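Narrative of activities, Objective 1.

The group set out to show that a structural description can be obtained from nothing but a protein's sequence at a throughput compatible with the screening campaign. Below is one input-output pair from the validation batch, recorded exactly as produced.
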Amino acid sequence: MTRPNLLAAARTAAALALALTLTGCGAQVAPTGAGGTDDDRPTAITIEDCGRKVTYAKRPERVVTNDVGITEIMFALGLEDRMAGYVMPDDRGELTKVPWKAGYDRAKWLSKDRITKELVLDARADLVFAGWNYGFGEDNGLTPDSLRALGVDSYLLTESCRNGPGAARGIMPPLDALYTDLTNLGKLFGVEDRARKLIADFRKQVTAAQAKAPRGDARPTVFLYDSGQDKPFTSGRYAAPHDIITKAGGDHVMADLGDSWTTVGWETIVARDPEVIVVNDYGDTTAAQKRDFLLSYPPLARVSAIKHQRIVTLDYVDLVESPRNPAAIATLTDYLATVHR
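Output recorded for this entry:
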């Protein structure tokens, strides 16, 4: 055998011995030319969710989402093929003309009722994307801890993060919460470029709306009415309506409320005398019925928004954390710009 052939044989023998040694030690060696890449192999991903570091063993492949805003975050990122399905009531507005209709066409509507552990297991989910009071809650026994015990991961919607003892929610400005979730999910699912583009596009939409928004003394005061007659359910500074109102050129009358969604007293609203009321359109009570109630409720008779009938309606999905928030700012900007003309 010639010297070159002897060297080649030696190299082959050495490589085989190394492979056998590594295999014996428990290392996994990808076969050359077998098509294996780093992207194909399970890789742990660590992100910060609601102030805590969370590590996922691999990219999720069968996600169950809860409610329309959360579901459309996945669709906006082009991740419908990673979804086992979504849970959503049937009172969330028209879904056939939305920008993410293709996502609704492809993903499975699993239930119109509450999300449950049984539903998650039946769907063979490896991750549930929901939030406190957006599917997760101690009252229904569905929490990230209870799912972890079943071998299912969770991702918590940032708008829903609890901000201390008790049930108060929210840890950052609402649009920042949306951008945080897009960034985190972009990393988790390997679509960082898509997430960055979405955030850039949303920032441009908001900037364009703000350029037309009322300023100074022309900024009207605004109250968000979700529901409730004995006491109104409304938004504090950590839910999407706060940023929608303030960036559209309004002053949010409940900006001092350190919560996302909660109940207040009518006497507070009367004292703060909003010039505009935004009605959240969803549920068994229609937006028209909510408007009629507000206009006929005696304690509100002297409130400026009622006296001048300045009541504007936005859809539920516009007002919860969702990729529709920037467009909602533009819509409300156009209305608020007319108030003090």
